[in-house]
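<amino_acid_chain>
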Amino acid sequence: MSPVTQTQQQPPSKISPDTAHLIFRPYLIRAGVALAFGIFSLIYQAPDLMDSGPAWVNVSCAIYLFLTGVAMWEFLRQEPVPEAMRSPLSMAAAAWVLGPVALVGAQLFSAGVMATAIILSLALLVAGIAQLVAGGGYRKEFPPARDWLIPGAVDVLTAVATVIAIFVGADFHNLLGIVGSAAFIHAVFCSIPGVGYYLDTRRARRRGWRPKES
């Protein structure tokens, strides 16, 4: 291999500006959704709102899961994402999209706090395991895959905490507090790579790089 070719190659731990340009938005979308839901979960704990029943808990969690799934689908549709990595992350997106359907059904049929806890824990557990599989299995092939390891672990732990909470007498607001607290963690650990990739794109632009589509 010639010295010129070696110079042009990217280090394995780096990603190209084209990749950074395509994937920073899904990270920031998920971070924004998580932050908004986390703030809502804090506001909803106010005494004057706590008597409004489970409807807002089910609906807000459904919206949060659905928009998180939308952010993941946006990530998956980007060309740099390896084909093999799309399978586990598609399972995560499906869990986030199907979970809200079940939550709305639980609300319509007044199924109670146990049903909400089971739905949330299953959706988060499937999504968490899927992210761990994607992050652990493809982090060498596609460095951004490692960004899903901490969110995956957080989702698994949140699922476990949700189940445990039911056995200690948790109510709807306790469930919202658990999921909302985890959302703040997601906001941090999705915004860090998202902002990083955005800044990588800006630095590349200053060096003369331009997106392929332009």
